[in-house]
Write a structure and sequence with these properties.
The structure holds 2 protein chains of 2 kinds. Chain A is mainly β. Chain A has 1 helix and 9 strands; from the N terminus they run αβββββββββ. A 5-stranded mixed sheet of chain A has the order 2-9-8-4-5, with no helix packed on it. In chain A, strands 1-3-7-6 form a 4-stranded antiparallel sheet, with no helix packed on it. The relative contact order of chain A is 0.24. Chain B is mainly beta. Helix content of chain B is about 5%, strand content about 50%. Chain B has 3 helices and 17 strands. The longest helix of chain B has 7 residues. The two termini of chain B are about 15 Å apart. The chains are: A mainly beta, B mainly beta. Chains A and B meet through helix 1, strand 1 and strand 9 of A and strand 3, helix 2, strand 17 and helix 3 of B.
Chain lengths: ~120, ~300
């Protein structure tokens, strides 16, 4: 096989795959409160993933710096956009550092997880 | 999920001076919060459905003193969620030396052993380089057999007081290449011990777990450096048991469905080559691109990924 043939094969394959429906591991692209950010007491946690997620198998836990669990509501995707997961926070947060632990299952069933901190300013 | 593809440059093959102990390796792997990208010098520690096409390598002067260009592919197909067959091959052009089609390389992999809380992962494999499948400068009259182990460890489990170190990950590989016959045309065919490791700093991990990166390009980059080594350990000619290797600094641009990687190839010593080469690869994540057809395991009784 010549180099030119290999290049043609690669280009054809790339074209064919680009036309296919693509799903993937849902990676966290952006969060509100921002990853590592400082905010006033938020009323919700908004996570934007790289792929659509399945809310029945996707969730968020919130803990304080002491490790105490903060009550949060059931996570749900934003209307019309299953890449965005919204979780209501059950009570105002006093100043301090908080940890968000999330786990997600993308619509093609890949599992991912992660955690990050944010700070509530006085 | 990946092919180890080492050229046994012993015996008759050593005579053409084409031996290069470089390991095109491929797929990505996910364990906990960590994505181990496909790396080019050693394999990553997971099993998955992927297609690396093409992997292009340029060496200004290989271990035999020839200019070399390689164009290769590797296809990893899962049989079950934790086992895969990897098929790799490709063409080599050398000047002086000429053209050759490399021996077909297949590898059976078993693994995806994952400890998600600690982002620790391992996979084992057994590769065969098939005699008679190569042509020209790459013709090989005997099979080679290679047991392999690949491991990876992300440092996301460090305390948040060490946040800047949490995107760091290490991967490593250890293998032995055993020739199927001890002598060819009066020359010894050595057994080689191969090892290597990579040091990675994942900006996607940083963006998701440490601090937001606003630039959409940079938050998909994983800078890394790979180190590969090989040494004859058995049945080698007197004075030929020299350790060869490469240092490969580079970067991976990773998305949800593919990655592009580019690395420099710096020879460890004169026996490894001369001058700085380069290797680049497009790797398609078939499990993400085609999750309902060729991107899923053939047998998956429990579903899920």
């Amino acid at each position: 096989m010549t180099l030119r043939s290999l290049a043609r094969l690669g280009a054809s394959l790339a074209f064919a795959l680009s036309a296919a429906a693509a799903f993937a591991h849902a990676q966290l692209e952006k969060a509100v409160p921002a990853v590592g950010g400082t905010v006033s007491s938020p009323s919700e946690i908004r996570l934007e993933f790289s792929e659509g997620v399945e809310p029945r198998f996707t969730g968020v836990a919130l803990t304080s710096a002491s490790g105490a669990a903060i009550p949060v509501g059931k996570s749900a995707t934003a209307p019309g956009d299953n890449k965005i997961l919204i979780t209501k926070i059950g009570k105002p947060l006093p100043p301090g550092v908080y940890t968000v632990n999330w786990h997600a299952v993308s619509v093609d069933t890949h599992h991912t997880q992660g955690s990050f901190n944010f700070t509530v300013a006085p | 999920m990946s092919s180890l593809h080492r050229r046994v440059g012993a015996g008759a093959l050593a005579a053409v001076g084409a031996a290069l102990w470089f390991t095109p390796a491929y797929p990505h792997a996910v364990c906990g919060s960590r994505i181990f990208p496909a790396t080019l010098g050693i394999d990553d520690p997971g099993v998955d459905d992927e297609l690396a096409l093409p992997t292009l390598t340029y060496l200004p002067s290989n271990s035999g003193g020839s200019q070399e260009f390689d164009a290769e592919f590797s296809w990893s197909k899962t049989i079950t969620p934790n086992t895969a067959i990897v098929v790799s091959d490709g063409a080599t052009w050398q000047h002086p030396g000429g053209y050759g089609w490399e021996p077909l390389n297949t590898e059976l992999q078993w693994g995806n052993f994952c400890w998600p809380e600690h982002e620790a992962m391992a996979t084992v494999g057994f590769a065969v380089g098939w005699a008679g499948a190569g042509t020209g400068t790459q013709a090989q009259p005997f099979n080679t057999y290679q047991p392999v182990i690949d491991v990876g460890k992300g440092f996301g489990d460090l305390p948040t007081s060490m946040n800047l170190l949490r995107p760091v990950a290490l991967t490593g590989e250890l293998s032995e290449t055993v020739p199927g016959q001890a002598w060819t045309s009066g020359n010894q065919n050595p057994t080689f011990l191969n090892w290597g490791f990579s040091v990675q700093y994942s900006l996607p991990y940083y963006n998701a777990n440490v601090g937001e990166i606003s630039n959409d390009f940079f938050k998909h980059l994983i800078p890394l450096t790979e180190f590969t080594f090989s040494k004859p350990v058995y049945n080698f000619a007197p004075g030929s048991n020299v350790t060869t290797g490469t240092i490969q600094p580079g970067v991976v641009y990773i998305t949800g469905t593919y990655q592009v990687a580019v690395e420099a190839i710096i020879p460890l010593n004169g026996a490894s080559g001369h001058g700085v080469g380069v290797v680049a690869q497009l790797d398609l994540y078939l499990d993400d691109l085609l999750p309902d057809s060729i991107g899923k395991p053939i047998f998956n009784p429990f579903g899920g990924k």
